[in-house]
From TrEMBL:
Keyword ATP-binding appears in the UniProt entry: no
Keyword Signal: yes
Residue ranges the record marks as coiled coil: none
Pfam families with a match to the protein in the record: DUF1397 (PF07165)
Protein name (Swiss-Prot/TrEMBL): Secreted protein
Signal peptide (from-to): 1-24
Keywords for the protein's UniProt record, in alphabetical order: Signal
InterPro entries hit by this protein: DUF1397
Amino acid sequence: MLFRTQILLVPLLVVLLFGIGCWAEETATMEPPEPLDFSYTRLWKYAQQQCDLKGITQTEFTNSWLTVRRCLKDTLDVVQLNEDSMRMDASNQEVILTRHCPKLYEGVKCFDPFVELVRTCVDEESFEIFSSLRAWFRDILDFLCESNGTNFVYDKEKHDACTRDLNVHLITCAAENMNFIITPQLNRRNLSEEFCNMLTKAKDCLLGKLKPCDVFANGARLFYKNFIQITSCKATTDQH
């Protein structure tokens, strides 16, 4: 259920609203995040650390983030959004998307001041990860909300099955195609064509297993397009 909720609420508006705390304590020096090895917590701590080095205090950094949270709470009916996402099916998807999509688009704008603050703190290569994630979230929103859902039919039964099997699919496709990740001294920021081809195979493997669930499949496809292809594999071209 959780993955479906995140897809439907757009991860940008859920994970970041409720999933990241405000760290006030000092943290150890962190290396720049890598595209294939990061977490939201790590991104937060790294950005906070870099802003501190630029003279932006932890209090200023945290207050900027709290402004995002307040904006989202003022813009979205989060409780109703969560309830609707859990009961959405083909029969009511247009009504639900019509109700929430305009506000979701407004909610995305809440992040702009914070993202611009981060841009002033981190190097261009690291900011690419932040901007790539934002592009992914925006494309998921566009996919869900275009003409209030004409891109897909949300078959709840099929998507519930995909939710149950998602982790298995991820592990299976990664194990079959991504053993190179454990290679010592691997430069994950700039993968070779060979390794990027393996990532493409892993992506295609996952899309095949998620074929009955077009919302999830497109989330995976858009992640590859908007994140992997313009970070770790920006030097290669995938025609899939």
